[in-house]
Amino acid sequence: MSYISIIISFTLKDKNAVASLSNALLPDNLTSPEYVRVKSTITDNRLVISINCRNTESAMHAVNDLLRCLKAAYDSLTKIKY
Questions:
Q1: For residue range 20-61, what is the model confidence (pLDDT) as tens digits?
Q2: Is-contact 10 50, C-beta < 8 A?
Q3: Which of 25, 71, 73, 82 is most solvent-facing, going by the fewest CB within 10 Å?
Q4: How far is CA 28 from CA 1, 2, 15, 73, in A?
Q5: Which segments of 1-82 does DSSP mark as H helices, in order?
Q6: Residue 82 within any structural domain of the chain
Q7: Coil, strand, or helix at residue 54?
Q8: 3-state DSSP call for residue 49?
Q9: Helix axes of 56-79 and 15-30: crossing angle, nearest 10 degrees
């Protein structure tokens, strides 16, 4: 079976902020459907998110959801001035 793979890389100056963003995404990563695989890794001050889906529609939904969650988490961090 073939999968669609998408990689999103997000870099910040503050390593703690990167860790906070990763933690904010963790609940969604753990509860994604079986046909969507999401994995996050942190290297220095970069968060790399890998998404693998069975079809284009699932990939679009997964990326859209992930970007919305990432934006909400980032907006929260900037309001508390990480």
A1: 999 998 876 677 788 889 999 999 899 999 999 999 999 999
A2: no
A3: 71
A4: 24, 23, 21, 13
A5: 15-30, 56-79
A6: no
A7: coil
A8: strand
A9: 140
Q: Is residue 42 part of a domain?
A: yes
d(CA 19, CA 3) in angstroms, rounded, equals 28
Encoded tokens for 53:
């889906």
DSSP 13: S
Return the residue matching tokens 């001035």.
Answer: 81
Q: Which domain holds residue 23?
A: 4-77
Which CATH number do you get for residue 8? 3.30.310.50
Torsion angle defined by CA atoms of residues 8, 12, 17 and 21, in that order, rounded to the nearest 10 degrees:
-10
Number of domains in the chain: 1
Does 21 map to a domain? Answer: yes
